[in-house]
Design goal:
alpha+beta; globular
Length: 165
Amino acid sequence: MKTSTLALYRKPWSKLTPKQKSTRVKALEVITASKRTQKPVSIIAREHNISIKTIQNNTNAFKKVNGKLVAKRFDIVSRSMLIGERGKLQSIQVSDSRHARTIGQYHNAVKLYLDTGNSTKLKKFSKRKIKDSEGIVHSFETRLPTVEEIHERIEEIEFFEVYDS
């Protein structure tokens, strides 16, 4: 099947235009916010200046339950994310929200370590692997001095984005 005939949410990240990538990231932010809060999806979408129809076209991540839109447990939307691996930040494409969530948890563990020096949560990723959308297995950087070096190279860490655009 040609990529051009696929539904937009089925298109791999690498086949999207810059505008489509930006829209997908915005749609994914709405999904994340809807899972974290009890706000209606329509309000969250309005706050992010995106329509529900656009979100559905880009993610297919909502279903109707009792007449209300509710985020599905997970989605199969390709996205590009950054992980610390082998001493540097790597951009990888993941194929669904479960992998994206794992990467997000890794970044939270890194932030906790950098902020407090507590490496307990980060050490849990030392043997963990993640498979990207091409089937390549990646491991998380958990060596403490290397994690510090990676984040020293990030110019504006407070604006660090885990999604790679």
